[in-house]
Known about the structure:
This protein is α/β, with parallel strands linked by helices. Helix content is 40%, strand content 16%. The protein has two domains: 32-116, Leucine Dehydrogenase, chain A, domain 1 (Rossmann fold, 3-Layer(aba) Sandwich); 141-264, Rossmann fold (3-Layer(aba) Sandwich), CATH 3.40.50. The longest helix is centred in the N-terminal third of the chain and has 20 residues, at 10-29. The termini are far apart. The structure holds NADPH dihydro-nicotinamide-adenine-dinucleotide phosphate and 5,10-Methenyltetrahydrofolate. 5,10-Methenyltetrahydrofolate (GUE) is lined by residues 51, 54, 97-100, 122, 142, 233, 240, 259-261, 264-265, 267-268. It comes from Methanothrix soehngenii (strain ATCC 5969 / DSM 3671 / JCM 10134 / NBRC 103675 / OCM 69 / GP-6) (Methanosaeta concilii). Its EC number is 1.5.1.5, 3.5.4.9.
Amino acid sequence: MIELTTIIDGKALAGEVEAETLERAKKLANKAIVPGLATVLVGENPASQMYIRLKHSACSRAGIRSENVLLPESSTEEEIIAKIEELNLREDINGILLQLPLPGGLNPQRAMMSILPEKDVDGFHPRNMGALLLGAERLVPCTPLGIIYALERLDKKLEGTEVVIVGHSNVVGKPLAAMMLNRNATVQVCHVFTRDLAEHTRDADILVVAAGVPGLIKKEMVRPGAYIFDVGINRVGDKTVGDVDYEEVSQIAGAITPVPGGVGPLTVAMLLRQTLNATEDQTKDQQ
Length: 287
Ligand SMILES: NC(=O)C1=CN([C@@H]2O[C@H](COP(=O)(O)OP(=O)(O)OC[C@H]3O[C@@H](n4cnc5c(N)ncnc54)[C@H](OP(=O)(O)O)[C@@H]3O)[C@@H](O)[C@H]2O)C=CC1
Ligand SMILES: Nc1nc(=O)c2c([nH]1)NC[C@@H]1CN(c3ccc(C(=O)N[C@@H](CCC(=O)O)C(=O)O)cc3)C=[N+]21
């Protein structure tokens, strides 16, 4: 029997989430509530500018009012925090997102901690990260949430499965490992110091790659039938590619996300969802 590979269409799934978010926003509109998201962009990194544009256009399709706060490249940590504190106080802003990376080696930790946990739609605040680690997920990082969402939509069982994550960043690898543990998967997390990457990746029923290294994952590193989530976004010449050798690996995978059109759109979709969750929580008394 020939098993066909499922191409996980992140863009189509994101379209469904946008429609669902719009419905939720319409319900709130009956009570004169409009969900509001503020993004904070420091400096002029072209990739960040593009991501911010993608997020704002998704908001406009999903019934969320959004605004971008632009701060100059030369901003100090204190100036960024002062701006965030202003947004914390505004009732028309339900979600705040500080776009990463910050320029010039500015440390994002303190600025991130200044976002009210209730408005932290990226899920990066230590209070939300701590809750996640303790198994009481509230607002959580959007990329891992998008992966979990897609797996649920594909009816893929997580309990007892072998999940291998390549990359242990604070925004993808670490929170995803905690979310998978919360769902009773067996989790391995690999990184640059892992001695034999292939030895681990071959165990995976679900393989998530977030390393930022084009072509890192080849066919022989993947178990046939595995579900592959390629988080990487790399520019090679004028092309955008992931971390997985898509041509090769898509031949044997059970399911795979393309780049572009996979995990990226799912990430943005989860930002919309969490903005609605935050808005509903903050306006409980008015509903
Ligand atoms: N699609 C989306 O929505 C998103 C995409 N991204 C993309 O995902 C990629 C990863 O980003 P991010 O999660 O922020 O991680 P970082 O770029 O901060 O870190 C990369 C991680 O991969 C590990 N790593 C690097 N090279 C190798 C290697 N050769 N073998 C094994 N592990 C390796 C690093 O290990 P160590 O720390 O030990 O060096 C580190 O844990 C980037 O391409 C980024 O653009 C990120 C966020 C969202
Ligand atoms: N505070 C913060 N929150 C983030 O969520 C955050 C961040 N900072 N910094 C950077 C990363 C990266 N990220 C992406 C979002 C969407 C796509 C996306 O939609 N990409 C499209 C287009 C890709 C292309 O062509 O370049 C796609 O994959 O189809 C990608 C990457 C969010 N991040």
